[in-house]
Amino acid sequence: MPRPSPKALNPLRAPQSYFRIYLRRSAIGLPAKQAGVLDALGLRRRTATVYHPVTPDVAGQIFRVKELVDVEEVDRPLDKKEIKARRTPATGYYVESRAGSAWADE
């Protein structure tokens, strides 16, 4: 019978946090090592956002490309729909009622 891992046995374990990594600048013209680090992080194009668990390995990779990325620590990773909703600006107006809706009641 396999033994459970120590992490599974600890009920007081803190919830895992994540790095939100946003690629601000392109890797064009940079050394192949830095482009490889971006590729390993999953950042293949500018303005891409990825989430990775907070670990020393990921922190070291981020440190290698710190000039190119914005990093924020978050509680949970967002899905693609939530990321898009955050990037979409407010419309600047709202609709109180539709045109002709008052006449439709008559």
From TrEMBL:
Gene3D superfamilies: Ribosomal protein L30, ferredoxin-like fold domain (3.30.1390.20). One of its GO terms (molecular function) is structural constituent of ribosome. One of its GO terms (biological process) is translation. InterPro entries: Ribo_uL30_ferredoxin-like_sf (IPR036919), Ribosomal_uL30_bac-type (IPR005996), Ribosomal_uL30_ferredoxin-like (IPR016082). Residues 20-69 form the Large ribosomal subunit protein uL30-like ferredoxin-like fold domain. Its main location: mitochondrion. SUPFAM superfamilies: Ribosomal protein L30p/L7e. It is found in: Mitochondrion. Pfam families: Ribosomal_L30 (PF00327). One of its GO terms (cellular component) is mitochondrion. Keywords: Mitochondrion, Ribonucleoprotein, Ribosomal protein. Component of the mitochondrial ribosome (mitoribosome), a dedicated translation machinery responsible for the synthesis of mitochondrial genome-encoded proteins, including at least some of the essential transmembrane subunits of the mitochondrial respiratory chain. The mitoribosomes are attached to the mitochondrial inner membrane and translation products are cotranslationally integrated into the membrane. Belongs to the universal ribosomal protein uL30 family. This is Large ribosomal subunit protein uL30m.
